[in-house]
Design brief:
By secondary structure, the protein is of the alpha/beta class. The chain has helices at residues 20-32, 46-57, 76-89, 121-145, 172-191, 208-216, 220-232, 238-251, and strands at residues 10-15, 38-43, 63-68, 99-104, 154-159, 195-201, 258-261. It has 8 helices and 7 strands; from the N terminus they run E-H-E-H-E-H-E-H-E-H-E-H-H-H-E. The protein has a 7-stranded parallel β-sheet, with helices on both faces. Helix 4 (121-145) runs parallel beside helix 5 and helix 6 packs across helix 7 (220-232). It comes from Lymnaea stagnalis.
Length: 267
């Protein structure tokens, strides 16, 4: 019998929970997890964080605390302290939880340039700071604080993309970052005890990122594909994608470190 992941009293850390997929995950996970669970919501925008926290707190017995985190930033002290600070403000102790969950959701899309035009080292460095460096550092602190010796169930969900496994013209940096984050989950699954890791590609979503893809993708074929999906209203709604993710987590039959897509069939 598989272990149901969303039935345990959990501390659930979500990056980028203020809009789109991240907000939907905060909403649906807070309705699934048992009373006593704590949500740590991390983003750059305090008013939007407050709104997301209020939504989570609508569920009886669920707690929420927010923290300002800019994954592009290089302030070591922020990464060293943010999770501990949030636990302290929530008056929570690691040992009171049955499970810890980290959702690496925050990320960016642009610049959407052909490789031949990606010659600005500052832009490249800034992109990878946001989409890789900060993600790795936060994941490391999560593993340090929520140790396998204390918690017998730990879960890390990386929000991935088809771009992690399929090249997309003029999307090099996005493809590289998503691919790198996928392999990180596989490495973590090999290194750590008491952990389940999953790369979840949520499908082409109805989000601000899709608008950016339609407007700024340099490859015309890919841009037109997105424009056509918008025209046909065939994009995936965030809530539907998260419902699929919830099902995957509840069934808990995926291979550790697996890459799973919204369109994959599950039993």
């Amino acid at each position: 019998m598989t272990d149901v992941l969303l039935n345990k009293v959990s501390v659930c850390v979500i990056t980028g929970p203020t809009r789109g997929l991240g907000r939907s995950m905060a909403h649906q996970f807070s309705r699934k997890l048992p009373k006593g669970s704590l949500f740590i919501l991390l983003s750059r925008n305090q008013p939007l964080l407050d709104s997301a926290a209020d939504m989570v707190l609508e569920n009886e017995g669920i707690r929420a605390v927010t923290g300002i985190l800019d994954q592009q930033g290089s302030d070591q002290g922020v990464f060293d302290n943010i999770l501990q600070d949030c636990l302290a403000r929530a008056k929570a102790d690691v040992a009171e939880f049955e499970q810890a969950i980290l959702v690496n959701n925050a990320g960016s899309l642009e610049p959407l340039e052909f490789v031949r035009d990606l010659d600005n080292v500052n832009i490249i460095s800034s992109y990878f700071n946001t989409n890789l460096t900060g993600c790795i550092a936060l994941t490391s602190k999560f593993l340090q604080i929520f140790k396998s010796s204390i918690l017998k169930s730990r879960v890390i969900i990386n929000i991935s993309s088809l771009a992690a496994i399929s090249p997309m013209k003029s999307w090099l940096l996005y493809c590289m970052a998503k691919s790198a984050r996928d392999i990180m989950m596989k490495v973590v699954a090999e290194e750590e005890e008491n952990i389940r890791t999953l790369n979840y590609a949520p499908g082409p979503l109805v989000t601000d990122m899709t608008d950016i893809a339609c407007q700024n993708t340099k490859d015309m074929d890919l841009r037109h594909w997105f424009e056509e999906q918008v025209r046909k209203k065939s994009l995936v709604e965030c809530d539907a994608s998260v419902q699929k993710l919830v099902t995957i987590l509840q069934q808990n039959t995926f291979e550790n470190g697996a890459h799973m897509d919204y369109f994959d069939e599950i039993n």
